[in-house]
Amino acid sequence: MLRIAVPNKGSLSEPASAMLHEAGYRQRKDRRELVLVDGENEVEFFFLRPRDIAVYVGSGRLDIGITGRDLLLDSGSQAEEIMQLGFAGSTFRYATRPGTAKDVSEFGGMTVATSFAGLVTKHLADNGVDAAVVHLDGAVETAIQLGVAEIIADVVETGTTLRNAGLEIIGEPILESEAVVIRRTGDPSDDPKVQQFLRRMQGVLVARRYVMMDYDIRVEQVERAVALTPGLESPTVSPLHHEGWVAVRSMVPAKDAQRIMDELYDLGARAILTTGIHACRL
C-alpha cells in the first residue's frame, strides 16, 4: 500500500482531507482516528502533526505527505516538494518596531524570534547576517514587547495582528508558502502508485479551475466563438439538426466563465450552459 501522511489539525487539515475526498479516497469520520486504510485504492493514511510530516517522509517511514512548504523547509528533512496544491497560502516575513531596521542586512547583532527557527537561520545565513535566533512555539509578536528579541519572523496574512502590536513589516518576504505534496529526496520519480496519486490530485486541481461550457452557434461565427473557447486542446464542434448551426463544447476557466458567456451571446450564440467538472485526467 501507498503510505501517505495527512495533516491532522490546523489550516492544512480540512482542505487536505476535502481534496483527497474529491480525488476518490476515503477519509476519516472521527478526528481521533490516527490511521485509515483505504483498501479499495491501496492507500494507508496517517494523520500527523503538520510539523512532523516532513520528518516521517524524509526518513522513509512514509512514502509521501501533504504539508506546508514552510514546514518542509523549516524541518531540514531529506524530503522535497513534488506538487503544489493551491490552498493554505501564506507569506513569511520579518517585522519589528518602527525605526529598528529597514532590511535583513541590518539585523547583525540582533535577536530574531520565530516559530520557524530552521527556516530563519538558513535565510539569515544565506544573506550573510550574524544574528541570534530564538525559537518560540507561538504568539511571537509579543517577543519584542517582552524584550526577548528585536525582530520577529512570522506568517503574515493581513498584517493586522502586527500593527496592533505596534510592529511594521520590513524587507522582502522570506518565503511564499502553500500546501504541497512531498516525498523523500532521491526516491524514484516513476513509482506507479505515486504517479497515480499525483494524477488524481492534478485532476482535482483542474476540475476546480475549469467548467465545461456548451453552446449553439451559427456556422459562420464558429471561428470567432472558438477563439473565445479554445479549450485545453481543441473544442468539440458537432453539427445540429437545424442547418447552419453547430454545437460547441469546451473547457473554460471558471473565473472567466461569465465574461465568456456574455461575449458568446454577443456573437449570436444561444443555449449557453456551464457545468461543473468533478474529476478529470489530462
TrEMBL record:
Keywords: Amino-acid biosynthesis, ATP-binding, Cytoplasm, Glycosyltransferase, Histidine biosynthesis, Magnesium, Metal-binding, Nucleotide-binding, Transferase. It catalyses: 1-(5-phospho-beta-D-ribosyl)-ATP + diphosphate = 5-phospho-alpha-D-ribose 1-diphosphate + ATP. This is ATP phosphoribosyltransferase. Its EC number is 2.4.2.17. It comes from Streptomyces melanosporofaciens. Coiled coil: none annotated. Its main location: cytoplasm. The lineage of its organism: Bacteria, Bacillati, Actinomycetota, Actinomycetes, Kitasatosporales. Pathway: Amino-acid biosynthesis; L-histidine biosynthesis; L-histidine from 5-phospho-alpha-D-ribose 1-diphosphate: step 1/9. InterPro entries: ATP-PRT_HisG_long, ATP_PRibTrfase_cat, ATP_PRibTrfase_CS, ATP_PRibTrfase_HisG, HisG_C, N-reg_PII-like_a/b, N-reg_PII/ATP_PRibTrfase_C. It comes from the Bacteria.
